[in-house]
Amino acid sequence: MLNLTDIQPQADEIYLDNNATTPVLPQAAEAAIHTMNLCYGNPSSSHMTGLKAKYILESTRTLARQVIGADRGEIIFTSGATEGIQTSIISALNACREQAKLMDSPVLLYGATEHKAVPETLKHWNNMLNINAQVVAIPVDERGILDGEFIAKHAANALMICTMVANNETGVFQDLGKLEQVIRANNPDVLWMVDCVQGLGKINLDIAKTSIDYAPFSGHKLYGPKGIGMLYVRQNAPYTAIIAGGGQESGLRSGTENLPGIASLNAIFNLLVDQDDNTFKSHDVLCAYRQQLAETLNKAFPNIVYNHDFSCSLPTTLNFSVKGLASKDIMDLFDAARIRVSSGSACSSKVTGSFVLDAMGKPKWQSEGAIRLSFGPAATQEEIDRACKAIEDAVIAMQHHCLLLADTDGESDADVDGLQQWGYDNQITWCYVDQSQRQVLLIDPIPELSERFQTLVNCRQFNVVGILNTHLHREQDDCASMLRTVMSDAMTTTSVDALGWPDEGVSVKLENGQQVDAIQIGNKTLAKLNLPGHTENSRAYLLGDVIDGVLKKDNIDYVFAGDLIQIGGLGRSDLHGSIPEHLYDSIRLLADVISPDTLLCPAHDYQQLFSTTLALEATSNPLLAKLLMENISKAEFIAEKAKLDAAIGMHEEQQLCGLIAQQNKSLIDVSPDKLQRFLVENPDVQVVDVREPHEFEAHRRAYLDDLKIVNIPLTRITDFIHRFTGEKKQTKFICICRSGSRSGAAANALKRMDFERVYHVPGGFALVN
Questions:
Q1: How many CA atoms are closer than 13 Å to the CA of 287, on its beta-carbon side?
Q2: CB-hemisphere CA count at 13 Å for 621?
Q3: CB 544 within 8 A of CB 524
Q4: Contact 721, 424 (CB under 8 A)
């Protein structure tokens, strides 16, 4: 296990994720440490040591009133904003229980772009307290501004209204004055909570001059430590203590106060109210910082779109998307370049969008591709300059590796050769490149990855041999057809069939004697094999070397099998157009023309295993095993397959194209603190960095403890498996990436393919000094 002191920021780290949490100001850290070391008394104790602690507590409360403009009302120290939200909502709902019983249709209103802590807390305590109100989201417009007419319409039936000063994803702020007018004009007594977390230190808050009832704050969003916050409660607003006990905080929140955390707030508040201190920058200076960053991003990403209107957003937040780039691509690149930003969507095989941007009506690609860059109000010009320079340098790596177009006249030094798999939401697009002949082939494209392909072709000035589908469902959009139209100038042929197969070509013989159509890509041959069953038009494509006119089993490198054979299952045969009896014949035919160990490349990958073989699938699929061994009749196969298809339900709102059995092998982990010793003891190990090439270049680390690192990106792991199949038994491989997630997937895929000596580093470069 790593020592705590071994976990430190990387050298030259550029932290631009302040909306998530901020670093702790030196003054705040010093105040907390001083308090822990020398002011350790309990504020509830009556002796002199306790009185000193009490002074820190109360002087911080006085400063808090000054900072937020609350000369009256309660200031209660909490563990953070979530506790403040819980307390506010419980207090309001508890006070409204009897009122709710008298109303026909009580509602609880919250802004559609609120932090999830708000609606989830409303729903939870609405049920727990048996309020039985309807929890309703207040819509926002395209700028993220709350719909005043909607509030006016529903306020009369509202027990509580929850809004926020500024959004954590976009920085969009609300006009509290206008909100107050519409709320109080339609319900003078409704209880109103305003999440002020992102506004502290960035917006002037004369909170006591408003009719806001509850306002939670969090210290770690403004250079304080985690675990400390405060809650403002308007004078005479109903209040229910959610922590009972010793009666601390005037009985409003029991438990010994977090005095070191409170002392850190004391230091921060002192800086905020000191007119002669320039730690916290003025609004104009922060706007200038934003403009400088925006100009840098505009030059770096010509297709950039900002997801918020700067005129109604905090100057410390930039939320953007880049057409043709996934948020993961940008975030991984920036992280490799030591620039810390956050993604507006999940970085996993299951792609999700930002609910904030969805509520604002942004297109799907913007929502799913969003990046949030946020700096703090104490940022310096030197930090912004460093950030801009780092962004400029990082983006060059994307240009070199054909994720962004640049004025390179096709002379990019990208090593783009062989097979790549591009994944999106469990769907796989296969791209095969012959660099020497400047040719490229695309199989099973999906819309979300189409621009990536276009950029690659235009960047390298490739000739497109084919853009093919392995099958099409009747309701499915034909992305391949769209791409062929858009890229007609790069296509080597324009006359194709329904799945994109060129009319011109050659004929080759398979090992079973069957004659099939084929085309050339570089020195390889791609043969077409019709395999109906999953759909009536299903087919596979066989890529390999033709010798003496025959494409033999052992000379086939890859089979692009669509949904016929999946990793952990067989394709469905109960869909419209499926023919189960043909599926039986197709699997038998495929087994006749390929070897049991030929790499199968499916159109879906639900487990991040990338590719498979007939031999592997037979070990976990009894039905397939019986079929391959010819121990089952066609009628029996159809009956058993129908039972399997019937078991397929909806999986996370996505319909599976086959019933998938989980397939994972236990990995041999080398923890980061043991890595150096492992490398010394295993000088023959091959270190494999599975990050993408643009990440590898953004912060190149050619050696790890004197052992050379090779870059085999996860998108090329199937190509790696094919090329290194002869080294399965003898060569040691240790996989590493940014966080250990991708290296774990790579190691698992290799182990599954019988690479015997595979290791990986959990935690990755993030924990390796």
A1: 7
A2: 30
A3: yes
A4: no
Distance CA(730)–CA(719), nearest Å, equals 19
The tens digit of pLDDT for each residue in 458-472 reads: 988 999 999 999 999
Give the other-Cβ count within 10 Å of 255's Cβ: 15
Separation of alpha carbons 241 and 761, rounded Å: 46
C-alpha dist (Å) from residue 691 to 320, 339, 741: 23, 16, 10
Reported as a single tens digit per residue, the pLDDT across 413-441 is 456 799 999 998 889 999 999 999 999 99
DSSP three-state, residue 229: strand
Alpha helices for 337-435 (secondary structure H): 355-359, 364-368, 381-400
**Residue 410 above 60 pLDDT?**
no
Q: What is the pTM of this model?
A: 0.88
DSSP for 460-528, written as a single string: HT-EEEEEE-S---TTS--HHHHHHHHTTTTBS---B-TT--BSS-EEEEETTS-EEEEEEETTEEEEE
Round to whole Å and give the CA distance between 153 and 150: 5
Measure the CA dihedral 196/197/200/205, to 10°.
0
486-533 pLDDT, tens digit each: 999 999 988 999 999 998 889 999 999 999 999 999 999 999 999 999
The tally of CA atoms less than 13 A away on the side-chain side of residue 30 is 5
| Amino acid in the structure at residue 768 | V
Q: What is the pLDDT of residue 526?
A: 97
704: left (phi over 0), alpha (psi -120 to 50) or beta: beta
Report the alpha-carbon distance of residue 268 to residue 25 in Å, rounded. Answer: 8
* Residue 659 vs residues 378, 427, 565, 624: alpha-carbon distances, Å: 53, 15, 11, 13
Could you tell me where the beta strands, DSSP code E, fall in 36-92? 74-78
Of 39, 287, 312, 347, catalytic = 347
Catalytic annotation on 347? yes
What the block records as the tokens of 664 is 């994972």
Q: What is the DSSP letter of 637?
A: H
Could you tell me which residues come within 8 angstroms of residue 51 by beta carbon, excluding any fewer than 6 positions away? 41, 45
